Amino acid sequence: MCGITGCWQPQGAVESELHETIQAMTAALHHRGPDSRGNWVWPNVGLALGHTRLAIVDLSPAGHQPMHSRCGRFSIVFNGEIYNHSSLREKLEIAGKTFRSTTDTEVLLEGFSAWGIVPTIEQSIGMFAIAVWDNHEQSLTLIRDRLGIKPLYYGTALHPGSHQQQFIFGSELKALTANRKFERRIDRDILPIFLRHNYIPAPFSIYKNIAKLPPGSMVTLKATNTIWPPVSRYWDHRDVAVKRLINPFRGSYEEACEELERLLISSVKLRMLADVPVGAFLSGGIDSSLVVALMQAQSTRPARTFSIGFTEAEYNEAPFARAVANHLKTDHTEFIVTPAEAMQVIPDLPKIYDEPFADSSQIPTSLVCRLARQHVTVALSGDGGDELFCGYRRYFDALRLGRLTAVTPAKARRLASLTLTGIAQQIGRWPQAQKLLRRGANLLSESSPSGVYKRNMQHWRDHESVLLNAHPPSTQFDYLMRNPIARDLQHSWMFTDAITYLPDDILTKVDRASMAVALEARVPLIDHRVAEFAWSIPIDFKRKDRTGKLPLRTLLAKHVPVSLFDRPKTGFGVPIDHWLRGPLREWAEDLLSEDRLRDDGYFNPAEIRKKWQEHQTRKADWHYHLWDVLMFQAWLAEHR
Fold it and tell me: Which residues are catalytic?
């Protein structure tokens, strides 16, 4: 696991300037790869590549990057892991290739040389962000893994005092902003999308002229098209899902579970391969418990597992994780976090996430990564099960409530919504009940199941009242709301989450939190082979009544008693709503002061202050909305 970056100025560049630039960009990613750092400059073509290494496979200097193919044609910087590199190496050796290391990086390079870039990537199982220079074609290709586990930003910087544009890329925005040619122009039009979803989805970024490469995509640049080259897909998640929904698995439920088990055992086994200590996050939920169970079943020693808990009982999942760990006999480490310890993370968030990001579970995620890094260098995570196997409660709530609102007259829905809102305003001493009532009041305003789902996935809906001079572009989420991929609404919502919420929120959160402490997080449930098979599983094999993830439950029950995991799903959250009225109040008040909001010029101070006061007086719970604004304001203070 590493950090990659680079710049290309085909019109010509001074060698000393290239060295200075790439050194600064690479240094900004030191946290992603503290074991070694490498730069390579080709002054004759104006190209520089940089790499920071977290050594996982072949810890020797033979794994140093940038790395060059034996034939001299290809050079690479690579962030991620190719889990099946050993089998690919065997194929290449049969074809006559020889190797100087046991790294997966060299396997990629020799694969490019023998088979070409796309055929090599199509055979690779893994997570990756790759930049490869083809010296014959004088081209630079950027590639991102199929599900979007590893990040890759790219765009342009303008040389001061000239019209020479420089193409730049990096694992994180901080590498790009370290380039002195980069102009930090905030894209106001992206802010409504951020406030709506609490993250900035691909292909957008917070800065103008910078994009995220979408999952499963690649771009190839030549000297004649280094501004905005066309994006192509080597793996299209939509095509994969549609084809398998149209031609589903034809066997029985038991046979589907057998095939899924085979794929998951393979996926977990591959992700246990490393030359450094490996562990796993364990929340006690279905997904992480299944990953740990399959990990423990294939290990000759107790698996290392990690969980955190909170002193607030409603947010504390540590006892569930502990029970699963005890049953599986893992080597378990648990840390109970006080509110003060959790809040110590908050000042670091703008530095960790590099662009506005407001999923408050970023706090416990950062804490559990810090805990794990004290003991291991690699940690397996259970992310992805909900999106592929119908696990989120919102899929069932949206269907049930949406069918009810669809047959209820609009006047009756408005009256019921106003009634619930009025009750919520009177019961400020019972915040959980107030929260449920307000949520119900909001959802009653929708007249269809998809409307209810969409409402569940959004925070600020009316950006005109809160943002100044912003005109948002259309997003993948908007498109999929208009063009569902399946007749079954739950399958359509799962797919929408899989290509928006999963890579742009969940996987972003885990990547930044883990790499901030040089921890490699691996995600076996979204091995692309598992994802492809999951879309072929009939929806009725995944759900029953209001219960989802049936195949995962069935497989987990082979290892863990049902009583240890059969409980309502809880989120990985922290009590932000309470903290904003207590220990975080002074910090938030400063960021949301009327003068500051007016001087910054992005938000309507009156609207923000109104929400803030209503939250403080318990007239309403606006913590999701306020956290979005606070994370932008904190980011702005750090990066202005």
Answer: 2
